[in-house]
Write a structure and sequence with these properties.
- With 300 residues, this protein is mainly beta.
- The protein is built from four helices and 14 strands.
- The strands form two sheets. A twelve-stranded antiparallel β-barrel has the order 1-2-3-4-7-8-9-10-11-12-13-14. A two-stranded antiparallel sheet has the order 5-6.
- Strand 10 and strand 11 form a beta hairpin.
- The longest helix is centred in the first third of the chain and has 20 residues.
- It is globular, with a radius of gyration of 19 Å.
- 37% of the residues are buried.
């Protein structure tokens, strides 16, 4: 697929809006909110990760009730694309999303990716929380995630044009995480991806995978994150590779900035779990970032 810088130019005004919002709302510190949460729920593990994403992967976290998260995810082109493309910086793929906390345990979201012109919607719910208090001991937190995506890319495929259901795909995962210390958090997630339309090389419509993610907190506001998706051998399409990403989370007031390197261009599960076409060893690396800005829509 050809990439252009048009998407990057269109999204620049959004970055400006986000920056202005930082000045207007910077005093609303996420750490202060975290402190209040700790007082409210003593004995429960909180802030296992800084964001609802590790990098590409969903984290164990959900939004608090009444919180709206405006999220911009951006990937430049491949670093090995050469100096003519300024090593990928001339190219851009973006995803814009709105996510909302229905309750303190359930959130929903919708997004639109420029990659394959894809719309997606999801629901994410906490099932169990890590705790050590009067209610007993439970060593991990567990969250369920499901989404639906539809590609609207016009590709001239007669099969797809004849039946729009072929454009749909689905993802499900059970995320299991543990906050070992205030600095170290790890998670694992069995994942199922279902594509209504198989591509050449697909052994079935389903891809089974296991996701791994982790965070090492360096300071109160900075952490190093990594995630890796291992596709089970019996369900691997040999045209694609396992997704691997690493980066840094930086919290500044009401924002979380995530800066990272990844071999995945797509930013939803259907893309980076089963359709990652880059190899780290070949230099197929995308520099990217996520910007998350939360707004409180409901009073306590």
């Amino acid at each position: 697929m050809r990439l252009t810088s048009e998407a990057g130019r269109r999204v620049l005004p959004l970055y400006f809006v986000i920056s202005v919002t930082t000045l207007a709302y910077g005093q609303e510190d996420l750490l202060a909110k975290l402190g209040k949460t700790l007082e409210k729920d003593p004995g429960y593990a909180t802030a296992t990760f800084k964001s609802t994403r590790v990098i590409n992967s969903q984290s164990i976290e959900t939004l608090s009730k009444g919180n709206l998260d405006f999220r911009i995810s951006h990937r430049f082109g491949r670093i090995n694309s050469g100096s003519y493309n300024f090593f990928g910086l001339d190219q851009a793929t973006i995803r814009l999303a709105l996510e909302y906390g229905l309750t303190n345990s359930i959130m929903v979201g919708v997004g639109r990716s420029s990659f394959q012109k894809t719309f997606d919607g999801f629901i994410k719910a906490k099932v169990l929380r890590q705790r050590k208090n009067e209610n007993g001991l439970f060593p991990v937190s567990i969250t369920w995630f499901s989404n639906t995506a539809v590609s609207t890319l016009k590709n001239g495929d007669v099969t797809v044009d004849g039946n729009s259901l072929y454009r749909y795909s689905f993802a499900h995962q059970l995320i299991i995480a543990r906050k070992f210390t205030s600095a170290l958090s790890l998670q694992v997630a069995p994942i199922l991806i279902h594509q209504n339309l198989k591509e050449p090389g697909d052994k079935s419509n389903d891809t089974y995978a296991i996701g791994f993610g982790g965070r090492i907190k360096m300071t109160k506001r900075v952490s190093i994150n990594a995630d890796y998706i291992y596709r089970l051998p019996d369900y691997q399409n040999k045209l694609y590779y396992n997704s691997a990403s690493m980066g840094v989370d930086i919290e500044t007031g009401g924002h979380v900035f995530q800066l990272h390197l990844t071999n995945s261009q797509g930013m939803i599960e259907q893309m980076f779990v089963s359709r990652t076409d880059g190899q780290w060893s070949a230099g197929d690396i995308y520099y990217g970032f996520n910007i998350s800005r939360q707004f409180k829509l409901r009073k306590k």
